[in-house]
Amino acid sequence: MNKSARAIALETLIRILQDGSYSNISLNNSLNNSHLSQTDQNLATRLVYGTVQYKIFLDYQLKGLLKTKITEKYLYPLLLMSLYQLIFLDKIPDRAVLDEANKLAKQFGKRHSAGFKIANGILRSFIRRGVILPDESDQIEYLSVKESFPTWLVQYFIDHWGEKRTQKILQSFNETAKNSVRLSSLKNKGKTLNGLRKLGFDPQESLLSSQVAILSKGGVSETDLFKNGDLTIQDEAASLVVDAFDFKGDEQVLDACSAPGGKTVQIAENLTSGKVTALDIHEKKLRLVRQNAKRMGVSDKLVAKAVDARKADQYFSGQEFAKILVDAPCSGLGLLRRKPEIRYTKSKKDLLSLQKIQLDILDHVSHLLQENGGLVYSTCTISTEEDEDVVKSFLASHPKFELVPFKLKKIASNSGMLKILPDSYGSDGFFIAKFKLRG
Ligand SMILES: C[S@@+](CC[C@H](N)C(=O)[O-])C[C@H]1O[C@@H](n2cnc3c(N)ncnc32)[C@H](O)[C@@H]1O
């Protein structure tokens, strides 16, 4: 029997909430093995992302309603998913949510289990009582529940950006991520945009880059435009990192942390006789880099090697590279729209342990840069520990490096550092710093 959109969503949520799986990987696996129509896939996606995103808020709604201990594994995810529909999906009538919860409880529960009665009772009680929130006098607790972020993260954002901006940042992270594509610079941009228009994607130019288009719907990876390498899926802020370099075309470039290769192919598009050496600590992930390069028609510019960038100076003989990109492993706090569970899995301690890895990578690759060469450091996080503090520490221990201003297609950085918060342009949160090695 083919599974329904809600059954797929529930089994995915069980894996994410009970087994700690990643939302995007789990959901893709479930959807790829399903026979759902595009509309049903959209519903399953909405249910999974929405429930994970609002987990703290939804959990709070159960306050006072749980009279018995929930033992069956499916029941807690089912309650959260049903509450999400009751509260956020206006087009689905309450009656339908209750009926569907009933069916799912019977499908996922043990034989003779009373799970469906428990679910029904709790959901009916919620409908009678309505949404509850903590008292506003405690802003941290209030915002934590209202926007569904752990209290440490709310406190962290307030400490760095104040209460008003924090509210905007949190709200912005709860908005739906845009469908953003970067158009290959090797192809005719007008033609690609026309192709997108014909397919109903209604492309609009990004505020951050003239090479990036925002689409009105998903599913572009199914099109020939994607398959033929006319475009690639990349966030508008992420697309700025490579633009921070000024390419001549004949350079040897090192991409120290390359997988899945979004920025590697972008570098390669800028090269004529030059090559990009793409490293990643995980051999398996390099397959994605090679696939991406092949699809985007730049395989001849790529050398891929499984290397721990913290040991990169053992693999290369000296100052071999004119440009180096360190798009470092990071907490990913800038990606909260696309990977909502990051807010629950990362802790403040992680920021400092990641900082250590980031500095280690920078230190080891910095020996491989030619004099007057450019080093770009970027992260998809907005934490100071992994961004500005890394820059400060790196400069303190590498006095021959200095920050240099850079100009992108639509914005510029005079300080050599650029931090993009998620509420500024509705993009992912990103950080870019550009250094030069003095001659
Ligand atoms: C932020 S992702 C890079 C994204 C990539 N630049 C892109 O645009 O598609 C960081 C990558 O660093 C890799 N990584 C983590 N630790 C590493 C290390 N010590 N050396 C090299 N790569 C590492 C991870 O496997 C991951 O693929």
TrEMBL record:
Signal peptide: none annotated. The keyword RNA-binding applies. S-adenosyl-L-methionine binds at C257, S258, A259, P260, G261, G262, K263, D280, D308, D327. Its EC number is 2.1.1.176. GO terms for molecular function: RNA binding; rRNA methyltransferase activity. PROSITE patterns: SAM_MT_RSMB_NOP. It catalyses: cytidine(967) in 16S rRNA + S-adenosyl-L-methionine = 5-methylcytidine(967) in 16S rRNA + S-adenosyl-L-homocysteine + H(+). It is found in: Cytoplasm. InterPro entries: MeTrfase_RsmB-F_NOP2_cat, MeTrfase_RsmB-F_NOP2_dom, NusB-like_sf, NusB_RsmB_TIM44, RCMT, rRNA_ssu_MeTfrase_B, SAM-dependent_MTases_sf. It is an enzyme of class 2 (transferase). Residues 169-438 form the SAM-dependent MTase RsmB/NOP-type domain. GO terms for biological process: regulation of DNA-templated transcription. Pfam families: Methyltr_RsmB-F (PF01189), NusB (PF01029). It comes from the Bacteria. The active site is at C380. Specifically methylates the cytosine at position 967 (m5C967) of 16S rRNA. Belongs to the class I-like SAM-binding methyltransferase superfamily. RsmB/NOP family. This is 16S rRNA (cytosine(967)-C(5))-methyltransferase. It comes from Lactobacillus kalixensis DSM 16043.
